[in-house]
Amino acid sequence: MLADLINQLFQEFKKELVEELKREFFNTIKHSEEDKLFTPEELAQYLHVSKEWIYKDGKKLIPYVKPGANLRFRKKMLSSG
Question: Which end of the chain, N or C, is surrounded by fewer C-beta atoms within 10 Å?
C-alpha cells in the first residue's frame, strides 16, 4: 500500500514537472517577429506551398524544432541572412 501511494505521488509529480518544463521552454522563446515559430500549416501559408509539401520535402530542406510531438519552424531560419 505504501509503495502504491509513493508510486502515485511520483507519477503526479512527474506529470506536473513535465508540464512546468514545457511552460518554461515556451516562455524562454522570444516573441519577436524574427523568432516566430511556425506550425507546418502556418509555414505552408507563409511560403505559399501545400501543407503536404512541408511534411514531405520541407522538413528535409528547412531546419525545424520538435517540442514534444509538435513540429515547428523558426522564421529566422528561412532567410539566408
Answer: C
